Amino acid sequence: MSLTNETIKEKLIGKFGDQLSNFEEPYGLLTFEAPKDLNLKVMQFLYDDPELRFQFLTDLCAVNYPDRSGQELAVVYHLHNLVDNIRVRFKIFAPVEKPDIFTATQLYSSANWMERETYDFFGVNFVGHPNLKRILNVDEMDYFPLRKEFPLEDQTRIDKDDAMFGRGPLPEAANRGPVETPMPAGEPALPASGTPGATGQRQDWPNDTTKV
Amino acid sequence: MSTDHHIKLPEGSIEKTTTTLNMGPTHPATHGVFQNILELDGERIVSAEQTVGYIHRAFEKLAERRPLYQITTLTDRLNYCSSPINNMGWHMTCEKLLGVKTPKRVDYLRIIIMELARISDHLICNSVVGVDSGAFTGFLYVMQYRELIYEIYEEICGSRLTTNIGRIGGFERNFNATAFEKLERFLAEYPGVLKEFENLFTRNRIFMERTIGAGPISSERALNYGFTGPNLRAAGVDYDVRVHTPYSSYEDFEFEIPVGKTGDCYDRFLVRNQEMWQSLHLIRQAYRKVQEFKGADAEIYHADAPAYYLPQKKDVYTKMEALIWHFKIVMGETEIPPGEVYHSVEGGNGELGFYLISDGGRTPYRLHFRRPCFIYYQAYSELTKGAMLSDAVIVMSSLNLIAGEMDA
After folding, report:
1. Residue A174 lies in a domain
2. Secondary-structure class of domain B57-407 per CATH
3. Where are the domains of chain B?
4. What is the ipTM of this complex?
5. Could you tell me how far CA B1 lies from the centroid of its own chain?
6. Chain A residues within an 8 Å CB radius of B331
7. Could you read off the pLDDT of B145-157 as tens digits, one per residue?
8. pTM of the entire predicted model
9. CB B95 within 8 A of CB B249
């Protein structure tokens, strides 16, 4: 365990300078962001450097952030150095209109299907991929289902509002307090059946039945 | 005899020298729903193309609308031969995000369950390798003990295959006496059975000739293909998540990591068998450690984290605090910290990872499963290139391809 997060960070900054940003260590895992055109260079450096040796691609997936204009799609790589047993995570961002990202298949054969899966669900276009087509969904599908623009639940349901899942403002109904239901002015309330004088009939009903 | 009797082939038709064979989507040899399109020259495989996704259920999308405790049932259906490992992996991911520390007894109980699950996973895989090479006996013989493992699950959580075992923070109830009784019976009887199972196969000449040299892979290629678990260890790399990134107090235990050499079907078989012995060893140690807890300590089966641990139903009906917490958890009133977590466990097939992004909402913002099966299945065409058709079947079963894990 000679390799530490600090060493990796120093080496990366020494090589790429301030092009890499947002170094963090959530739960001990070194995380950083790279410009999208540098993803292969960063990976190649992490792979080839005799000390870093990140030669195992653990995971590759995408995340959709619809609110980040120009950076709607994030591709997240998890790399693992099995010799020193240390992991690193890095992200690149691409605009949703033109999500072109260089493929990692030249470095890692395992990236092949992972990239196909990412393309399948998010539409990330991996430039140079040998066989970029859908993998889990049907070939005829013409949208990318894991993007946030495709909500999951039936949209006619009102009991599953986003606010109930901790996101967004509370719906108006929740802020209003006790619900008041004013009587509509035009229609008089029906007298309860059984009370004296109740006919059980509205005025616009035909009166014929009383003749029977 | 005139040549008129010969079949006249249309012009140009003999130029095609290979045959295309569809193995799957529903084929007895695939043991699941996925397809291999094999290009055959006689009985030799020229190339193979795999098609997956027949039972894709969009778990990652579904998870974005489910509170944390409801996602456990989705993980059941990944590798359904060892669902408790998936369940525990998910609970531990949540605990990592929420900062819940589990007591030692919970960790040891979890190890018992996870190692039982590993045994049930490996024994299915290995006996199916036997079935696909023509030896049916072993399969039926060990099936009884998978049944016993399922009975132990039943005592603990009430279900057998898709277990939904445990909760965030521990177990839903303490193990009862019957569970420990059955565990003891398993520990007493299974070694003899496993020994006999090995006797049936390990030095069986037919089995050895069928499996040695079938679907080999070098350690470099295996790593490049993202192999993990028994399949990687059969190729000679001693990577095991339980040792490299210990979780659930695996660091308190003594066990060995068996490795192979050639990465062929025979080595994969041997590695799995050895892992079953190691799992038995781990269960014995964990059971001994569990027995050391006396008095009130022996009643601990969950972490003291009322904000995240769903209380027992009988407490919900009789105690006010439990009712409040139950309501808060179910209605999503408890605080979920924003953050990003990657947590992995050693599943039956390798490194099962959960990449969870929380934005502070009640449900994950994004959840990605690193499914070992999906990742190493892409090596199948390389493993079978130039092999015989019958090897294609045995390579598939010895990789332990589980359709549920592949398609998520």
Report:
1. no
2. mainly alpha
3. 3-48, 57-407
4. 0.89
5. 63
6. 164
7. 999 999 999 999 9
8. 0.87
9. no
